[in-house]
Amino acid sequence: MALFAEYDQYDALGLAELVRDHEVTPAELVETAIARIEEVDPKIHAIVHPLYQPARAAAEETPSGPFGGVPFVLKDLIQTIAGVPTVSGSRFFQGWVPMETTLLYERYVEAGLITVAKTATPEFGLLPVTEPEAFGPTRNPWNLDRAAGGSSGGTGAAIAAGIVPMGHGGDGGGSIRIPASCCGLFGMKPTRGRTPVSPGSEQWNGFAIEHVLSRSVRDSAAALDATEGAAPHAPYHAPHHEGSFYDATQRPPGPLRIAFHTENAMPSQVHSDCIAAVHDVAALLEDLGHEVVEHRPMHRAEQLARWFFTVVAGNTAAEIAEAEKKVGRKATAKDFETATWLTKMMASLFSAEDAINALRGLQAETRRLTQHYEGFDVVLTPTLGQPPVPHGALRPKGAEAAAQKLVARSGFGAALKLPGLLEKTINEVFSFIPFTPVANFTGQPSMSVPLVWNDEGLPIGTMFTGAFGDEMTLYSLAAQLEAARPWRDRRPPVRA
Predict the structure, then answer these.
(1) Fold of 7-253+467-484
(2) Regions of the chain short of the pLDDT cut 50
(3) Taking the domains of the chain in order of start, what are their residue ranges?
(4) Residue-wise pLDDT tens digits, 344-364
(5) CA triplet 344, 348, 354: central angle to 5 degrees?
(6) Active-site residue 75, yes or no?
(7) Which of the following is catalytic: 88, 90, 118, 151?
């Protein structure tokens, strides 16, 4: 089978148009994607489960839909395909095969996308870097010594390296926007409830929402058109909107009033590259005719971090209990990474009152921020607190790592109350992602846009957050920025 030499010159919609015009076949596109996986994945480790034979079979049927015949990757977390292993980055799930296909994945298939592989994720999607012990680190195509981000890091690396033009991700604390920033891609986290949550797959009390990472803005918008809409009997729905998201990318946004700041919402010292990127983009926005105003939110960073971690810890404990039912055996500390098991143990130290108070605190902060930004259309911040970090930078080392492992294996939960045992690790994680979690607990749409690269040649994303339910404004603005400062032809040193 001949490969399609010009594959990398097109976004997903562009490839689908070639298929419709009979200039290339889905089979040629699938074989090209497979060849690219085999060429570049040994360097980046983005793929955890190839799906070559099902992809070849799907390509023979000439899929219809807006992305008919386009190769795609699926993050190996939350979304499942009946009969295909899902391990969620964990040793505990090795050998488990789900029997159901989730609704969002069915919508990808209806849109014509052909999944060629499943991509790496940290264990249970907990960390903002993709370095699971079960598979090893996913490496950033811009610099193999740096993280590709997480938890959708496998997807981010696969797109950046040219394997596919678009892929699936999920975002509970920034997990679409983080790898988009690290890998020089566009990443939109839609409004809470915009894409379907299948029964049993809601994550982190609704903080997590799934969509795609892509090279082009229009691919992301068209994918949201194809997949939006709550599942039947969903507990909440995103607000109704008029028109298509794709159409929003085809019209200018008009002059917007944009607030910007570089004040961290979680404990962090924000890197100068990330601060400089925001000021650079603020100047670009002014040149495009927008009103740009510095407007600090005055977050209580330590309190927000504790509330957010309380919710995540409780959900992690519940997910491990659910995993035990799926696998059919009791879990032990040896089945999981130390950080995952300690997070579960921490949940046992929180009371039901603590959990409800954490949720109420985040809801109160949501109301405060809504009032604080009244009169603004969009808020601009850094996506991350640092450029892509070296591998292992967010993991404890030496005596700290040994102490945590000892506590996890001993099951002595009271030791977690010892000062400094977990705080340093938690704060190091949040120091990398001091901005992204806000839109998860507020439920607002938020996107990372690749407009800046630093002196080391690493992408530095800038993040735009819109009003609840208003992806339209964000997509229109993103398309304007894409035209003003194109990024799609920028390619990392490691690519197929």
Answers:
(1) Amidase signature (AS) enzymes (3.90.1300)
(2) none
(3) 7-253+467-484
(4) 999 988 999 999 999 999 999
(5) 110
(6) yes
(7) 151
> Which one is catalytic: 152, 175, 216, 448?
175
Q: Read off the pLDDT of residues 409-422 as tens digits, 9 standing for 90 and up.
A: 887 776 676 666 66
- 175 a catalytic residue: yes
Catalytic residue among 75, 118, 189, 344: 75
Mean pLDDT, all residues of the chain: 95
